[in-house]
Structures are given as structure tokens and as C-alpha cells.
Amino acid sequence: MMEPILTVEELSVRIAGLHILQGVSFTVAPTGVTVLLGRNGVGKTTTLRALVGLTPRNGEVRGTAQMGNRALLGQPTHRLVRSGLGYVPEDRCVFAGLTVAENLRLAERRGSTPAYDRVFALFPELDRRSRQRAGSLSGGQQQMLAIGRVLINDNRLLLVDEPTKGLAPKVVTEVAEVLERVAESVPVLLVEQNLAVVRRLAHDAVVLAAGQVAWTGNAQELLAETELTRSLLGVGSAEVHH
Ligand SMILES: Nc1ncnc2c1ncn2[C@@H]1O[C@H](COP(=O)(O)OP(=O)(O)OP(=O)(O)O)[C@@H](O)[C@H]1O
């Protein structure tokens, strides 16, 4: 077994008196896509946000998370990002009033060479639209910008939250293709509800239920077990056998 890129132990998050995560432990392999699954509201986004130091001020985080030899919890976000933890939030958070080029420029980190060639090789569309305001991009294009922005810098691990949410089926496929290529060079911890995308991308799966890890293992094996998938994720068998 290769050393994991991320080891989370006993992660607990309490927000406004609610115990959202209660001792979550899992690892992320140093290559490929690990998918974080679970029913709506189980705490997937809360997990990613805790790892990148974005738990709200009234929240309390306990436990440990190691990226290689680096301890993540309790560190400010800007320092985590500088150490190679990339985060693509669920709401994409592009600057609507700025152009594509300006959004990318803002993501550049001091002291490292921005990899525009890498970004434009993956997303030629961003190059063509560099002078367009981000707010006027389609949802899929904004998602590409949100991912491209993170890839301007070198990363040791990417956290990607529901990148296909709200996108048309054709665009979902495009985003999945892009993530597949991204994951060839950097490990990804992905929150994703679309099981066809999970089937295409994921090697390992971590399933949350009731604030804890309910299942970990091979993602393809999980999806092959219809009853297990249904009980863990609450989805119908039609969705499982897409
Ligand atoms: N700032 C907050 N204040 C109060 N409750 C919160 C806060 N953030 C999250 N929660 C609650 O924590 C629980 C977990 O939310 P989270 O967004 O992590 O779930 P999720 O698994 O990502 O859900 P979804 O799949 O619906 O996006 C939810 O019940 C949510 O309402």
C-alpha cells in the first residue's frame, strides 16, 4: 500500500451546538479520485471545509488531519493553500464582475510560477474567453474556471465539492472528463452525488452516515452492490444502474 496523501483521524465538527461530524476517520490515496458520499446534509461539505480551515467562526473542530507530514487542522486557509491544498467550493465562487483572465490572475501564488499552459491545455475555452466577465459565463464554464483557477498552482491534493451540481447532462460529462484528466496528476477528494460520475472517476469511496464513516472501500464494488448503495445513500436501483 502506498502512503496516503491525507489521513483524517477522529474529525469532529460542532456548529451552533450541533454535532455535525462525530469522529470521522479515513484516508485518501496518493493517486486518483477518492469520493466522499452520503445522504443530503450528512456533512460532506462540512468535512471539506474543516480540512481547508473554513469552518464558520461559531464552529469547533477536533481531531487531526495530515497531508503528508503537514498537520492541516487549525491552520489558516491561505497557508494551507500555499502548502498545496487546492479547494474548489460547491458554489464555485468566481468573481462575477471580473474577467476570466483577472480571476485566474488573482489565483496566482507569490513565489511560484503560474501554470497557464496547463490550465489552457485542459480548458481551451478559458483562453478563448479570457476577456469575458466571469458572471456572464455558463454554469459549466464557471465550473471550469473554478477548477482552472486552482490548477494555476501546483497542488498536492485537491478537494472538489459537487462540481456537477446543477449542470446539464452534456456539461456534467465534460466536467467529469476534465476531472479524470486532472486526477492523472494530482489526487482528488471529491464530493459527488451523481453516481454515473462516481462510477466513471472514483477508485475509493468513503461513505458518511449519522456524523460518522459508515463504509469505506472500493467505489466500484460499492456501486455494484445495489442494496448496500441504496441503504447507504438512499437512492433507487435505477440510479445505481445508470
Ligand atoms: N454554519 C452552519 N450552521 C448551522 N448548521 C450548519 C452549518 N453548516 C452546516 N450545517 C448543518 O450541518 C449539516 C451538514 O451540512 P453539509 O453541508 O456538510 O452536508 P452535505 O453532506 O454536504 O449535504 P449536501 O449533500 O446536501 O450538500 C446540515 O444539517 C447543515 O444544515
TrEMBL record:
<keyword id="KW-0029">Amino-acid transport</keyword>
<dbReference type="InterPro" id="IPR003593">
    <property type="entry name" value="AAA+_ATPase"/>
</dbReference>
<dbReference type="InterPro" id="IPR003439">
    <property type="entry name" value="ABC_transporter-like_ATP-bd"/>
</dbReference>
<feature type="domain" description="ABC transporter">
    <location>
        <begin position="6"/>
        <end position="235"/>
    </location>
</feature>
<dbReference type="InterPro" id="IPR052156">
    <property type="entry name" value="BCAA_Transport_ATP-bd_LivF"/>
</dbReference>
<dbReference type="InterPro" id="IPR027417">
    <property type="entry name" value="P-loop_NTPase"/>
</dbReference>
<dbReference type="GO" id="GO:0016887">
    <property type="term" value="F:ATP hydrolysis activity"/>
</dbReference>
<dbReference type="GO" id="GO:0005524">
    <property type="term" value="F:ATP binding"/>
</dbReference>
<keyword id="KW-0813">Transport</keyword>
<dbReference type="GO" id="GO:0015658">
    <property type="term" value="F:branched-chain amino acid transmembrane transporter activity"/>
</dbReference>
<comment type="similarity">
    <text>Belongs to the ABC transporter superfamily.</text>
</comment>
<dbReference type="Pfam" id="PF00005">
    <property type="entry name" value="ABC_tran"/>
</dbReference>
<keyword id="KW-0067">ATP-binding</keyword>
<protein>
    <submittedName>
        <fullName>ABC transporter ATP-binding protein</fullName>
    </submittedName>
</protein>
<dbReference type="InterPro" id="IPR017871">
    <property type="entry name" value="ABC_transporter-like_CS"/>
</dbReference>
<keyword id="KW-0547">Nucleotide-binding</keyword>
<dbReference type="GO" id="GO:0015807">
    <property type="term" value="P:L-amino acid transport"/>
</dbReference>
